[in-house]
Amino acid sequence: MTPTTFSFEFFPPKTPEGMDKLRATRDQLARLKPKFFSVTFGAGGSTRDFSLETVLDIQRAGYEAAPHLSCIGSTHVNIRAILQEYQNHGIRHIVALRGDLPSGMASTGEFRYANELVEFIRSETGDWFNIEVAAYPEYHPQARSARDDLLNFKRKVDAGANSAITQYFFNADAYFNFVDEAAALGVNIPIVPGIMPIGNFSQLARFSDACGAEIPRWMRKQLEGYSDDIDSIRAFGLDVVTDLCERLLKGGAPGLHFYTMNQAAATTEIWKRLGL
Ligand code: FAD
Fold first, then answer.
1. Per-domain residue ranges of the chain
2. Which residue(s) pair with 74 in the sheet?
3. Which residues pair with 79 in a beta bridge?
4. Which of 93, 135, 146, 178 is the 20 to 30 A CA-CA neighbour of 53?
């Protein structure tokens, strides 16, 4: 059986103060002994330098760092240079994504989909990188159909992905259904649920609308009812997300990947409640 892996995601800070704050968060979360910390990457290379700096900072502190790499709007030459840079620094773990074209950027560049990026990484660097890809238990918002999205997920696996991290969701059945459907297509790589702690309802609603993650009606109603009462929102969020994690782990999920939003408190509390 594959061992369970736990990981934490950060976005790259853009100021020295932000970096100091992230270091403190990282050191706090490091006590939970995650397998790795991942760092997001703005499509079109918009956060390239900040992402690299954050990744190297994590690595220098002695932890495993997995940079995200999004390919939309990019060229083979650009991506090759980034891969070389990571290889030169001894980075062996990468999260390969398509990304979304930033507004104002007209050209999609030389990669259309993430499976092309996975293929490119494998052809350029062989087995150097452990490659993670994204999975969508509630399906990607641009997918033509659920079946199409699943087949497109399989393309990334066939191109050489080692494991997957999902978009966040609040409905465990969607995850288990997705894993079963993927297995029926012969996909057996670990599919690790992405977990979004709840700290702020309007931000969560905005993210969820953009990425197609469903906030179930009962949750939305309850969260809306708390209005500006942040303490109640957080308390409710901790209960709901801890229950979700428990169900996922009991049901055989191969780990958990936390979208920390560069904050340690909620993730740490969920961790404690899970008895990890
Ligand atoms: P793809 O797998 O390429 O899929 C995109 C859409 O195209 C889907 O609808 C799919 O069904 C369809 N499709 C895929 N392949 C084909 C094909 N060959 N032919 C036709 N249709 C196809 N974004 C960032 O910009 N930076 C990040 O750091 C980042 N990190 C993320 C981490 C995780 C764990 C997740 C789940 C998402 C992350 N995202 C990030 C968001 C992600 O980039 C977006 O969701 C994006 O819209 C899709 O990326 P993808 O890699 O899943 O794309």
1. 5-274
2. 109
3. none
4. 135
What does the pLDDT average to over 247-265? 97
Q: What is the pLDDT of residues 129-162, one digit of tens each?
A: 999 999 999 999 999 999 999 999 999 999 999 9
Q: Is the CB of 143 under 6 A from ligand 1?
A: yes
- For the chain, the average pLDDT equals 95
Spacing, Cα 100 to ligand 1 middle (Å): 7
130's tokens: 């452990």
- Ligand 1 in reach of 146 Cβ (< 6 A): no
Task: Centre a 10 Å sphere on the Cβ of residue 185 and count the other Cβ atoms it contains.
Answer: 14
Q: How many CB atoms lie within 10 A of CB 4?
A: 15
Q: For this structure, is 9 an active site residue?
A: yes
Does the predicted model carry a pTM greater than 0.85? yes
pLDDT at 1: 53
- Best probe residue, ligand 1, of 36, 41, 69, 70 (max atoms within 8 Å of C-beta): 70
How many residues are recorded in the chain?
276
254 CA to middle of ligand 1, Å?
A: 21
Ligand 1 centre distance from Cα of residue 114 (Å) = 6
Letter for the amino acid at 250?
A: K
- pLDDT higher than 90, residue 44: no
CB of 72 shorter than 6 A to ligand 1: no
Rounded-to-integer distance, Cα 134 and Cα 94, Å: 11
User: 92: Cβ below 6 Å to ligand 1?
Assistant: no
Q: Does domain 5-274 have CATH number 3.10.105.10?
A: no
